[in-house]
Task: inverse folding
């Protein structure tokens, strides 16, 4: 059993703290919302009047807050964690924040000899409630091992992202994909609806192709990530299909901003002589562009 402070008892934090309690730990919570604190008490936790009070006499302090500014305030401002946290305690920030802020917080804590783990959370509050979250951990190895049994109470997948700050970076990379795909998904389904197709059938079809399975688990490992640009499906043909979709969407008056941007990238690939390459060669093109402009 460990004494753990949990700062930020919102959609995610409240459930995560509840799973720590279920794991046999004593969890003292703090949140600016009284309702959140009451819910934490109903879950078997205790509460305190400030973040500083919560952090006193604990060996682990967890922050699960909306953004980097609030994380920094809750740690370093008056009444913040820094006033009471023990020098041998571990601070685990599980919020999604800018990686530069993660580095800044780690540096300030290190100046006091306090270790930090960045462990942002994958999946949503549904999995947080079930204790099946995924954690992207950036930490020194021994700090990860200290955090591991705590994280295991709250999730089922713990991924060492490769050292301090890498969890925070991984989370932002991951969310670039999920947030962008969300918009693309909404646009594609709007287009599908406008063509008059049955939505469930559209989901079924796309669930069986790279559309729904995702390029990262299908076409990319099969081709470009192996350095193979021989066409399984040519860029010229992919662009032909995208052009048909954009024409049809124009007729149906469905705006498709992301596919319109994608079309420009395919055009650039064709202009660069890549029309006969595999469609995943778009990644090869972007990598070369980045290297030549560096
Ligand atoms: P939330 O808004 O539901 O919870 C944040 C909590 O922090 C609230 O209860 C709020 O009252 C509290 N808070 C605000 N300022 C505070 C302060 N100064 N001191 C103490 N408490 C304070 O947000 P959430 O969905 O729980 O997300 C928390 C973090 O986790 C965010 O960084 C979010 O991006 C990330 N995240 C969310 C999800 C999700 O599915 N909701 C998934 C993964 C990661």
Result:
């Amino acid at each position: 059993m460990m004494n753990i402070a949990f700062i930020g008892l919102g959609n995610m934090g409240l459930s995560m703290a509840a799973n720590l309690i279920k794991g046999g730990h004593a969890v003292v919570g703090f949140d600016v919302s009284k309702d959140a604190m009451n819910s934490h008490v109903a879950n078997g936790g205790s509460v305190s009047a400030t973040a500083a009070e919560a952090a006193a006499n604990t060996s682990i302090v967890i922050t699960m807050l909306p953004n980097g500014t609030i994380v920094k305030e809750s740690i370093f401002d008056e009444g913040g964690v820094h006033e009471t946290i023990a020098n041998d305690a571990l601070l685990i920030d599980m919020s999604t924040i800018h990686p530069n802020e993660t580095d800044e917080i780690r540096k300030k804590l290190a100046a006091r000899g306090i270790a930090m783990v960045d462990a942002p959370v994958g999946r949503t509050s549904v999995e947080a409630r079930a204790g099946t979250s995924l954690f992207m951990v950036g930490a020194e190895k021994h700090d990860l091992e200290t955090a591991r049994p705590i994280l295991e109470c709250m999730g089922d997948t713990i991924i060492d992202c490769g050292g301090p700050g890498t969890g925070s970076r991984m989370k932002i990379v991951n969310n670039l994909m999920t947030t962008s795909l969300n918009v693309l998904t909404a646009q594609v389904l709007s287009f599908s609806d406008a063509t008059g197709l049955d939505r469930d059938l559209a989901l079924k079809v796309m669930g069986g192709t790279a559309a729904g399975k995702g390029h990262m688990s299908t076409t990319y490992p099969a081709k470009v990530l192996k350095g193979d640009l021989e066409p399984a499906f040519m860029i010229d043909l992919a662009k032909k299909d995208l052009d048909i979709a954009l024409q049809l969407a124009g007729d149906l008056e469905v705006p498709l901003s992301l596919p319109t941007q994608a079309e420009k990238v395919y055009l650039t690939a064709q202009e660069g002589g890549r029309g006969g390459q595999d469609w995943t060669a778009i990644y090869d093109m972007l990598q070369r562009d980045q290297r030549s402009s560096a």
Observations:
- The chain has two domains: 3-169, 208-293.
- The mean pLDDT is 97.
- The pocket of nicotinamide-adenine-dinucleotide is lined by residues 7-13, 30-33, 36, 64-66, 70, 73-74, 95-96, 121, 124-125 (CB under 6 Å).
- Residues 77 and 109 are 13 Å apart (CA to CA).
